[in-house]
Every structure is written in C-alpha cells, then in structure tokens.
Design brief:
GO terms for molecular function: alkanesulfonate monooxygenase activity. The protein is α/β, with parallel strands linked by helices. The protein contains ten helices and nine strands. The protein has a single domain, classed as TIM Barrel, CATH 3.20.20.30.
C-alpha cells in the first residue's frame, strides 16, 4: 500500500523485547506498543518481497543487542535479494534494561556500537574480513552474499544526544534524528560544516506540517519519515491520507 500510493520508503523499528519493569515504571504507552512488533529483519524481508521499487530501512537497528556477524549477513542478504533497496539505520538505544538482558553494559554501548558497525563494514567489503577491537574480535572470515549496493547500504546513525554528530562523522553516511524542535536545524548546519563528505539527513519521525516540510527542504533534508499506526487497513489509510494531504499542500497542489 505504501508503494502503491507513491511513497518511496518504509522503515521498521527494532526491539527484541521490552522488560516488563520498564513498562510498569513509565506508564507503558510507548513501550507497550513495542511489545507487539515483528522481528525487524523478518518484517523487512517481507516488505522487500511485497514490493519492487520501495526503499526499505531499519529505523533503527539496535546493533548493541545484535551479533555483528549475524547482522552483517542479514543486512547483506536483504540488500542483495531486494536489488539494493536497503537503508541501514543504526542506534545504541535508550532502554538500559533491554540492553542488559542482551549482556550489554549501557555505559559502554556507544563504543560497542562503533566497533560493531566498523566490523560489519569489513565483512561487507572484503572477501576475507578481520577485525580486532575491545568489544569485537574475529580473524579471517568469509561471509557472503555481499550487499548489492557498493560499498554497502547507506548507514544512517540515529540519535539526538549531545555526541551523536561525532558518531555520524566517525562511521555514518547520514544522520537519522527525531524531530525534536527547531534546534535540530542548527545541528544540521553543524554536521554539514564539520563533514569532509556529503552527509545525508533524514528525519525518523516528522509531524504532519507542510510549513515544516518547507524548512526541511531549505535545510537539505533528504527524506521526512512519519510514524504510521499499527492496525487494520482503514486506520493506516487514514494516517496516510493526512500525511499525503500535507505533502500536497507543500507541493502547492
């Protein structure tokens, strides 16, 4: 339905589970929604199989909770089978209890994420890959298929914290922030000024606001993504109608 209606991308979130204590402590609205999501890579494979031109992406993959060799294989397989339509959003996450259940120390998650992304790049781009780091270590492995996109699918670094731009510049092809307010445009200017290469900007969740689209376009934002609700077709279509009405207004139609 998203492809048929002319939208160009569909991103799918990632939580392996939600610790019950977190749901209880926070009132549960956001976390309870995430309890019911499909496995991210299974859902992405289904989306790829159901479409022919739609870009499919992870918004975002919690790489601090996933083995990098397995994840590299999943990313490469989906990109290969979809004909190079995958976009790899990555993040360290915020749910500390969830991380701990995977054996991840929240205090070192940013360093862990960097090493896992760097290790996956080695796997995607080399016939015989090796990586030696503090958290990730392997020597001389073969892993195929390689991604259809060269050198690999675009890596979009998610996050809004004070050091996220450092991570974007260190190993990302783009930044995938939430829309947190007008201050995000200052940060877009900052990352572009600091970069020695083009940095793609996408918003992970964008309000239905044609005026905001104008400002995003002026700032060079590549894509504005919008959360769709889960539910029967009528509920999803209603949300798409509202989103597309704002797009038409932005386009002057």
């Amino acid at each position: 339905m998203v492809e048929e209606r002319g939208q160009d991308a569909l991103f799918i979130p990632d939580h392996t589970h939600i610790p019950a204590a977190v749901v209880t402590q926070t009132g549960g609205t956001l976390q309870r929604k995430y309890v019911h999501i499909y496995d991210q890579f299974v859902a992405l494979a289904a989306a790829a199989a159901a479409t022919t031109t739609l870009r499919i992406g992870s918004g975002v993959t919690l790489v601090v909770e996933r083995d990098p060799i397995v994840t590299a294989k999943e990313v490469a397989s989906i990109d290969h089978m979809s004909g190079g339509r995958f976009e790899f959003g990555v993040g360290a996450g915020w749910n500390r209890e969830e991380m701990r259940n995977h054996g991840t120390d929240p205090r070192t998650r940013m360093a862990l994420m960097r090493e896992r992304v760097e290790a996956m790049k080695q796997i995607w781009t080399r016939h015989e890959a090796s990586y030696q780091g503090r958290f990730v270590s392997f020597d001389r492995i073969w892993s195929y298929p390689k991604p259809a996109q060269r050198p690999h699918p675009p890596i979009l670094v998610g996050g809004d914290g004070p050091t996220v731009l450092d991570r974007v510049l260190a190993y990302g092809d783009g930044w995938l922030p939430h829309f947190t307010g007008a201050e995000v445009f200052d940060r877009i200017e900052e990352v572009q000024a600091r970069a020695d290469r083009p940095i793609e900007i996408q918003f992970l969740d964008t309000p239905v606001d044609a005026a905001l689209f104008e400002r995003m376009a002026a700032a060079g934002v590549r894509r504005a993504n919008h959360w769709l609700p889960s539910g029967p077709r009528s509920i999803v279509e209603r949300a798409l109608d509202q989103w597309e009405a704002a797009i038409r207004q932005f386009n002057g139609e």
